[in-house]
Specification:
By secondary structure, the protein is mainly beta. It is built from three helices and 24 strands. About 0% of the residues have low confidence. Bound molecules: copper (II) ion (CU). Copper (II) ion binds next to loops.
């Protein structure tokens, strides 16, 4: 009996230890309950909306604005399930807006800055636990109750002991298998498509049709489903934006990296002003939900006379390894940064590389090589001259530093 009582105490202690451990992280449902960051380029500058994750509904959804420059946002949240609305406002550096949410599922956040409006579709997700976690929790509970019962009774029958052991074994087995069992779909998530979705077809246009140097115009990207021709309205937020748009002058002197607004289903738009006349190349990186990433390209002409350009950037002086890069094999590029690196779009550094003719565009992410250095590794497909722009945030500012490199055969 002594031996059984000893084992019982040991089991009771083990049970308490397991209960006090943090629940294992389930990476697949990290979307539910996690913050959603969406970056948008308004005329006044770039603003990142931080939509706080919820653990339950109904609740107040907190929406904050982050930006280098001051901006005030009018917000309206609409449930696409029942049409219920809630509105508020948020300013950079101020407390978040609190918008009332009653349902999980599809919503649209309408954001107005000045006279521009972006409508951001997103899903309110609430984490839900998988059925097997209930089995595990139940088994732990039974083990504990039997053990506590035994302690209170100051003795433990063999029946109680074997019951507790069996329940404990079930609980531990399920816990160990946990990482291999399917995670629960968060409440409010979209039904899974049976197969991947077709690529989007993109067409770029400008308004007015012929932009003039120094004057604001709107660059528009219309997205249509490759199979049905209907507007593509299911872009996944990747690297903190539904779309990343790079505009370069054909000669590579002008570079813009912006995040267009969704002005209607399948329509993305951004206001630009360009200083030099000539041909410009546009590249949009998008990713449909449950589909792959893709790059859409287009071109447009700007007329007029050259204007003074305030966006002229200092040139980066990178160190390359090997010093003479070769087509088809990796090159490591290290850039010293001006000041301590801060995350921008969730990454320490970004680099956009374009072939001189514009046929090839690559987007690489850097790792921090110390507090004030960035390291990129990429492989360029063809020999020739490449134009590159390193972008990173330091001192609360986004810096763009161009350089060029020759790639040998
Ligand atoms: Cu981007």
């Amino acid at each position: 009996m002594k031996a059984i009582n000893g084992a019982m105490r040991l089991l009771a202690v083990a049970w308490l230890v397991v209960l006090s451990l943090p629940a294992p992280a389930r990476a697949h449902v990290v979307q539910a309950g996690a913050d959603l960051r969406v970056t948008q380029t308004f005329e006044t500058g770039e603003v990142t909306l931080v939509i706080a994750g919820l653990s339950q509904v109904p609740a107040a959804l907190r929406v904050a604005a982050e930006a280098a420059d001051p901006a005030s946002l009018q917000l309206e949240l609409r449930s696409l399930t029942d049409g219920s609305r809630s509105s508020g406002s948020a300013s950079v550096g101020q407390d978040p807006a609190a918008l009332w949410v009653t349902h999980t599922g599809p919503h649209e956040l309408r954001v107005r800055v000045g006279d521009e409006v972006s409508m951001i579709p997103f899903r309110v997700l609430v984490p839900e636990s998988a059925p097997w976690t209930m089995v595990m929790d139940g088994a732990f509970l039974v083990t504990g109750l039997l053990l506590v019962g035994g302690v209170l009774a100051k003795s433990m029958s063999r029946l109680l002991m074997s019951g507790a052991s069996a329940a404990g074994a079930v609980a531990v087995t399920v816990m160990l298998l946990g990482p291999y069992l399917p995670p629960a779909q968060p409440e409010g998530s979209a039904p899974q498509a049976e197969s991947g979705r077709p690529y989007a077809q993109g067409s770029f246009s400008t308004q007015p049709a012929r932009p003039v140097t120094g004057a604001e115009f709107t660059l528009i990207l219309r997205l249509a489903d490759g199979a049905t021709g209907r507007p593509v309205d299911d872009l996944a937020v990747h690297h903190e934006a539904p779309a990343h748009l790079v505009v370069t002058s054909e000669n590579g002197v002008i570079f813009r990296h912006v995040h267009p607004l969704r002005t209607a289903p399948g329509v993305l738009a951004v206001r630009l002003s360009l200083p030099y006349p000539g041909r410009y190349l546009a590249y949009a990186e998008i990713e449909r939900q449950q589909s792959g990433g893709q790059l859409l390209t287009g071109a447009f002409e700007v007329s007029g006379t050259a204007q003074p350009d305030a966006s002229v950037q200092e040139v980066a002086m990178p160190s390359l390894t090997p010093p003479a890069p070769v087509a088809g094999s990796p090159v490591t590029i290290e850039v010293a940064t001006e000041g301590q690196i801060q995350l921008w779009l969730g990454m320490p550094g970004h680099m956009v590389v374009r072939s001189r003719d514009g046929a090839h565009l690559a987007h690489a992410h850097g790792t921090a090589a110390g507090p004030s250095a960035l390291r990129f590794t990429l492989t360029l497909p063809e020999p020739g001259r490449y134009l590159a722009w390193v972008q990173y945030a330091a001192g609360g500012r986004l810096l763009t530093r161009p350089f060029t490199m020759e790639v040998d055969r």
